[in-house]
Protein 1
Amino acid sequence: MLLHEYLLIFGRSFLFALATLLPFLNPPAVAPIFWTLTEGASGATRLALAKRVALNVGVMLTIAMVAGNVLLSFFGLSLAIVRVGGGVLVIASAWRLVNSPDAGAERAARMAESFTPEMAKARAFYPLTFPISCGPGSIAAAITVGASLREEDHLISLVKLAGSLPGILVTSLTLYVCLRFAAQFLYKLGENGTTVFMRLSAFVMLCLGVQIVWDGAHELLLSVLVEAMNHIPVPRAP
């Protein structure tokens, strides 16, 4: 193959990874949820958390893309099971956000006193990274991207991998920018606008969680139905 053909494969892999992963992460919708869950944290703490969450998301997507199918096979798990379990986590987190009380000055002051660096470290992965920023839908998308890397020609597989990794990097950087500048964006909305936007984002995340659970349950039910049909004896013609 010529050099420009490899460059074309590289570019297609980059765009495919970016177009597949970015809509699932949906960084603009994650920003108000991140702001709400870090209520009371200082600007420096939020900046450090934004960096940590973006880094965690990049690592998770890379692992899911490169070794997702191998890990699922090792633990004897199907992608449908991952969707159901992860979707339940998304629903639980979104439900708490939808029903959370509105923030007031007194509550914000109490949160500022209690939001310690230890609390920030504890929340960096769960729930800020998983399932808020990188849920089962994003992981399933990364595994899908990883499946597209397999080619009989190992050199082409490496070129596709080299193109997909920058796609993950751009996705993580986009998430970081949205989390980093969430305050400036939400400030323009005002307190009431921020509350409404946060609850709408939480509701959308709740619906996504239900959709993810349904997709997994639907796949499991179909597999059970197919297995049951295979065990039904076929009557012989007289």
Note: The mean pLDDT is 81.
Protein 2
Amino acid sequence: MTQNLLKRLKGWPWLALTPVLLFILIACFGPSLVPYDPSAQDYSATLQSPTWSHWLGTDYLGRDVLSRIVGGARVSLVAMAIVLVAALAIGVVIGSLAGYIGGRIELVLISLIDVALALPSLVIALALIGILGTGYWSMITALTLAWWANYARMSRAVVKAELQQPYIEATRVMGASHLWIFGRHILPNVLALVVVYASADAGALVLAIATLSFLGLGVAPPTPEWGQMLVDGMSYIEEYPAIVIYPGLALTLVVVSFNLLGEAFALQKVPRPVRGRLLRRRRAVRATEERQRDAAEMGAKSI
């Protein structure tokens, strides 16, 4: 069991997974380790360069930049997690119903999905925020309602493909209920695909959260958030560009890391050509099997 676990862990894309895990750890435990409150103001230490007391300097209100970047990581992670879980739940339910039930219900749900996919997600989020108003939870609700359609489309496609498999018909013949068939056989395959796509979509969500906060439609000050930090630093970019560079680098690294992670998970589903030591090993095994088969045939003929 331990060997199988080690083999599975060895096959994971650790090069892409490590920055994502580092971001999650910083978001979870970083705020308890930084020496300053991200919202604490010190007007006697405004726009300072990096020092031993402030490793990344301070902003125009004397707030510690490192503490605000770490606090912004937590805000982005929590918002991203809420939106992903809610959008996955809505998308999987609607897409699975459309694929499993079929008929007129499928036609209505597919039309709804097509309408949601007709416009970019950020445009839909902006329109919904215009209706719901600005604020943190309005941003969460708007992004959730703008992000579910892709998961619904993929869920429907997987359900349709699984329903054509012979084992589904066999379970029906054996008297299994619709709930058992869906929960035991279809839902795991749906989640396996949708979660892989969500790992790449997480980076786009972090960027969308920062964009809405940058426009003043998401996280409101003084809560630390990377997009809000970019807005605060724009007025001082010429005399102190680091105040914009640091949150911009943090945002870029997180988005790129999630994109690489999603791409790595997707590539694991693609069959790779066998090369090197594994190819030689398989050839040796095949040659041994052929020799054993030939020896068995010779023994049978001699008898």
Note: The radius of gyration is 26 Å.
Protein 3
Amino acid sequence: MGLALAEAARGPRGANPLVGAVLADRDGTVLAVGHHRGAGTAHAEPDALAAARRAGTDPRGATLCVTLEPCDHTGRTGPCTEAILAAGVTRVIIGAPDPTGDGAGGAARLCAAGVEVITGVLPEQARELNHRWTRARAEDRPFVTAKTASTADGFVAAADGTSRWITGPEARAHAHRLRARVDAVLVGTGTALADDPRLTARDETGASLAHQPLRAVMGRRTLPDTAALTRDGGALRLDTRDPVGALRRLRERGVEHVLLEGGPTLLTAFLAADLVDELWWYRAPLLLGEGAPAIGPLGVGGLGEARRWRTDRTGPGISDAARGVEILGPDVLTRCEPQPRPAP
């Protein structure tokens, strides 16, 4: 299960939970490993089974160890229970049960089909891995990733309002790849008026990437007809300053993963409401001393009231030594998530 948890950490956070799987024989010899790589891709269990077949290994009679209860429903992919039964796996070891209504039930289905099922192996670690995703699902809202780009001393614009470009081309290209991974990108009307962003996902040459997120603007101010988010079909307008209401509207549109692109007012509102599930902070080696701060007041009166976050040591293509921190040209990206709340 420890190996399965490490494999789960190789996946990206977002619309789906992080899940890892290990296929082993009865003696515990590892035959194959797998993990979920994001929405629309194979789940961890079919990924491990496919890896075994590519290696010429027959999974019949094997044990499958998975960090989260296998799903028993059809979404973008088929039920994992069907893949497990079709492969002839005879024992399944589960870290934590699936807490969602549509995903639960896989263990009972496997038991009914005669598979030996063992549950609750390293359950606390398995639950903690996806504690924010679980909360987002319980609140029936999208998973929220917030992104900001600032100077080393935390400013997103100089005193005169100039902000392009604080970070370099490598960081900006990296942020565009993040856009291509989410269902929607959300900005406030202040950012829309000040920066006139397109919010499209583009490569280093400026060409559009294959997946384009839904573009959304939140706030009460009106955008001019000449704005980039008004032209070309326009962005979804969310005439509200309430983060909960905005997420509800996006969820109604089928959005499961939303990226907050700014600005400081929007980010502060979502942070104050504890609705940011992960934060991507790009920092450039620049010092301004004054200007527009990346985050506004959060109502913290003392150090004991500070919001506690931790570096997120997960993510695809990142070495164990560098997880959560990446060097992008002259800039540094830190990815972090809120610390889990103490159990009641």
Note: The longest helix spans residues 44-54.
Protein 4
Amino acid sequence: MSGLVETILLLLRHASHDRLGSVLCGRMPGVTLSEAGRREADALAFALARHRLAAVLSSPMERAVETAVSVATSQALSVEVDEDLNELDLGAWSGMRFEALRGDPAWELWNRARSHARPPGGETMLEAQARMARCIGRLHRRFAGRTVALVSHADVIKAALAHALGLSADFHARFEIAPASRSVLIAGEWGLKVHSINEAPA
């Protein structure tokens, strides 16, 4: 990346949906924004209006795309779907209620040791972190000197922040990434800098 100017990356979590807090959705289809989530997405778009965005990229999940559309429309942009921003692949756990997972040793290990645990049939946090690092590097080269919005998911954003800070993925629980929140990374030839974490769209 030598010689490239700074790129500002706005890491946006999708807005709320009706299963939030009760179902581990993962990559299950058909999870769309709730009425409250649509209001959150509009508020996020309004809050970002002062930024001149070069692009809006999104996870392919419906809830992320819907959030991205609100942001992109306010900037007269289209949404570009990027697989690297996808939700963690939670395998057999996708669509399960949190209450059904309590007491499962594999679930407890996953939440205690993300650096090496793997959901049954899914991907590890480190694999998600690797694709986010790849995405950030690619976008820094592509949008050097500009600002881009990336709409993704809480754990994926946590993985990106841990990468930028040089922290173990085991520290994921130390980050709060709320629906429709904004965390900001700055990418330069010197590496990554965390500018802010979990800003509300007020």
Note: The CA atoms of residues 48 and 71 lie 8 Å apart.
